[in-house]
Amino acid sequence: MKNVLLFGYGKMGSSIARGWMLKELEFNIIIIEKEASLREIAHKDGFKVYENIERLNEAKKSKIFDIIFLAVKPQQMEETVKSFSMSNLYKSVFVSIAAGLSFSWFKNKINKDIKIVRAMPNLPASIGYGVTGYCKSKNLSEEEDKDVYLLLTAFSKTIYLNNESMIDNVTAISGSGPGYIFYLVEVLSQIGIDQGLTIKDAKILARETLIGSSRLIETSNIDPKLLKENVTSPGGTTEAGLKVLEAKKNGLYPLLKSTVKNAIKRAKELNSDG
């Protein structure tokens, strides 16, 4: 059985690990998490978990890890990779989900010959409905590539990117995208409250509208543009609302475009910060 080491059991790390649990993969998974409260959660979830590599070694559980997932924040990554000098981990395949940190960053910080995959999953991975874009260095073997793909597809639909530069775009659209969607539901709920609905009713209406619409996109296999047209009657209420959202100067398209571009900009800054 192959060994996987997951650094970080925060929101994304735990989402990934729980996605693996849903598929009952045949990998030996060990967690490294410095926060005691998160270690407790990982332990309750059924994982072997240690505070750091030193504790892992003391427990005589240190192994040759085939794949090392780095699920820590970009700002914490440098501190995390410093620990690798204490263990023989250079033959491992590293999978980073940190926004912004490039192949070059990892080669400079760890080893110029590192086998590295950059992946950008999103929060719905925790329920097996994530989506991940990923790219890889050229030195992975065919078997290593298959193992990484198996781990990624366990918690998400997965898109391979030929060009590393595209990973920042994925980060801004699908990686950060759930935050945009959750905010849309939050705002729509608040507007309902402002218009006189109860808090409970407004939240139900906004949430279930999103869930139902998403489900319709998934099951109907109809282009969202056509679905939009199907719900829009000439002279009706949807058309009246869409006139605002589709405004060229200050409608939803220019607003979301600015949102995504700002997220891409920040992803590039994170690599510079590192």
Residue runs with pLDDT of under 50 for 5 or more positions? none
Ends distance: 35 Å
Under the CATH scheme, which architecture of the largest domain would be assigned?
Answer: 3-Layer(aba) Sandwich
Structural class: alpha/beta
How many independent structural domains?
A: 2
Total E-strand runs: 8
Report the CATH superfamily of the largest domain: NAD(P)-binding Rossmann-like Domain
Give the ordered list of helices and strands: EHEHEHEHEHEEHEHHHHHH
The dominant shape is elongated
CATH top level of the largest domain is Alpha Beta
Explain how this protein is built.
The chain has 274 residues and is of the alpha/beta class. The protein has two domains: 2-167, NAD(P)-binding Rossmann-like Domain (Rossmann fold), CATH 3.40.50.720; 177-271, ProC C-terminal domain-like fold. The chain contains twelve helices and eight strands. It has an eight-stranded mixed sheet with strand order 3-2-1-4-5-6-7-8. Strand 5, helix 5 (103-109) and strand 6 form a beta-alpha-beta unit. Helix 7 crosses helix 12 and helix 8 (177-194) crosses helix 9 (199-220). The longest helix is centred in the last third of the chain and has 22 residues, at 199-220. The relative contact order is 0.11.
